[in-house]
Amino acid sequence: MAASWDTSRYLTLFAGEATEHLEALGKDVVTFEKGATPEVVDSMFRHAHSVKGMASSMAFEATAKLAHQLEDLLDALRADLARADAQVADVILQTVDALSTHVKAAVANQPLPDSAELGAKLAALHRVLTKKDTPVPAPAPVTSTPARSSPSSPELEAPAPFSSSSSGVVDPTTPPRYSLRLKINPASNQPGVRGFLAYKRLSTLGNVFDLKPPLDDIKAGRVPQGVITLELETDQSEDAVARTMRTVGDVELESIAAVVKTPPAPPVAPEADPSRVVGQEPARTIRVRTEVMDEFLDQAGELLLATSRVRALSRRVPEALRPSLDEAVDHLHLLVKGLHGRVMAARMTPIAVISDRLPRAARDIARRRNREVELVITGEDIELDRAIVDELADPVLHLLRNAIDHGIEPPEERKAANKPPKGKVTLAVTRQRERVVLALSDDGRGIDVARLEQAVVERGLMTVDQVRGLTERERLMLVCLPGLSTATDVTDISGRGVGMDAVKRAVEQVGGTLEIETKPGRGTTFRLALPLTVAMVNLLLVSVGDEVYGLPLGKVSGVIETARERLPMSQNAPVLQFGQSVLPVHELSSLLEVPAGPPSQGQAPFVVVDGDDGRLALAVDRLLGQEEVVLKALSQPLDLVPGLAGVTILGNGRPVFILDVARLVTA
């Protein structure tokens, strides 16, 4: 039956939340396959129930029906976990994929696909799971099943305190319940992340109830006095709960006490429900489109630039008036910088946005390639700018595909090499000062460097002599050449090297770097070093003639001053000794095709930077120092100019182009 109210305005919200639930459900299935537990099946049921409820409210009846059939199947599993097997997991994942297709079709305003065949498969499997030798009572109605669901999901009804029989006696099979009080360290610089991580860890032990403050407030860091209270229904002991909490940094378990079970009170009329106190409003959160946040950040950046401009102009004010003006400008700058920081904090997103999708992908790829793979993810609570996270989703997934498809050997090959039949892939995320490092490692066969060099020469990309002159790091980076692959069997999943140029380009576009390490027979590591944000960047300012340019400090390896006439020559081109390496020298004025300044007398500066083919030296006229600036994207047609990564405006009002040296040299 069609809804009588306009649902189109809520379509984006529906798509976002439904997608989150389906991705979480797919992740749960991977855990379910490793060992079906009541907790993971309950979690899967909650996600299916949420999708069903949202689809019903949006009048997507076909989607709601399919989700309801999945819900029935999961409810049957909760009653008999012994019947869980790979066939059940496959059907659940097929349903998750079908529901995802429904959501995408709804967003695109296209007809919902026909899922009648899948629905019949779900119904048939449900009949098999519920068929027993002796009659059993019918499953409870859907409206009562959320009794084991977390009330932190707004789509679910709040559960009764404990399940009970019709006689009013407390059900002895209900797991014990504990009252917990947590305290976040006041010195923690990520209270929201720490609180959310504590919630996630406790959720793995059982069902969380009466969470205060609400989960959305915890995620946003709104935790008064750093105190979180909740009730946890779990089969684990108090010591086990305490041990789990000790794995969460900056969060202390202040108290834990068993809750005395009492029969549920008689139903309360809505107007007398004590949980609905007059004047007490629930916490409110909103979802903001990424474009709006981008515009907000851009405006905050403009304010920072404007205050810098005002500060520069204040130097022209008479000395007598300057103190009061400087005080006002300092106060304005403090407010604007605080505003900019708040906008940046709102854009920060945990790496979990990427990593939560990987277990399902690893499971599917491993099954298609007959591999046995264990995926281990650490540091997923570390945050990055949402713009960087969005750009990295596909590259990280590509690295995972390569690792499983061509890095991890088949079980028989691993046994012959005295390795365990199950391969291991690890995604380790760490924070190192102002950068975040993602290291994706596998314990597979490693990259065959000799075969890689041979492929480069056979394709005419380099000569034998050129390959021999490369350093070990440069030889491994050959895997990032476009279209190069060392795989003996290129599959529809990936080929070692296919697409690695896109991975490297994506990492560098957000100001990061890519490093590769490999050991024959022991595995490969791809290390992505990334800035925390793309909105602010530290620059080394240099001048060429009358122009000023910025070089991202993350790409600068060092600066050397020497006389130009003393530079040695190699193949009629100047080179520079830097450590144990000899680097080619490029005149920045020639690369930019701008007039150079007058020849320097004596020492001249050379900036050593990272390029696609290794390090190189840039000859510049002067070094002007370092500065942290607001990065602004280039508009058309400047965005088509190779070698330009962005633009900023200095405090004196002067615009400065930020250079992408790798693109500039290869253009």
Shape: globular
Strand content: 15-25%
- Stretches with pLDDT under 50, minimum 5 residues: 1-5, 132-173, 263-280, 492-498
pLDDT averaged residue by residue: 79
Instruction: State the total count of DSSP E strands.
Output: 22
Q: Distance between the terminal alpha carbons, to the nearest Å?
A: 59 Å
Radius of gyration (Å) = 30 Å
| Total count of domains | 5
Let me know the largest β-sheet. 6 strands, mixed
The number of helical runs is 20
Strand arrangement in the largest pleated sheet: 14-18-19-17-16-15
The CATH topology of the largest domain, please? Heat Shock Protein 90
Q: Briefly, what CATH class of the largest domain?
A: Alpha Beta
The CATH H-level homologous superfamily of the largest domain: Histidine kinase-like ATPase, C-terminal domain
Helix content bin: 25-40%
Helix vs. strand class: alpha+beta
Level-2 CATH architecture of the largest domain: 2-Layer Sandwich
Account of the protein in words:
This protein is α+β, with helices and mostly antiparallel strands and 667 residues long. It folds into five domains: 1-160, Up-down Bundle (Four Helix Bundle (Hemerythrin (Met), subunit A)); 172-260, Histidine kinase CheA-like, P2 response regulator-binding domain (Alpha-Beta Plaits); 290-349; 351-531, Heat Shock Protein 90; 536-666, Beta Barrel (OB fold (Dihydrolipoamide Acetyltransferase, E2P)). It is 39% helix and 22% strand. The protein has 20 helices and 22 strands. The strands form five sheets. A six-stranded mixed β-sheet has the order 14-18-19-17-16-15. Helix 1 (11-34) runs antiparallel to helix 2, helix 3 runs parallel beside helix 5 (116-130) and helix 9 (290-314) runs antiparallel to helix 10. It is globular, with a radius of gyration of 30 Å.
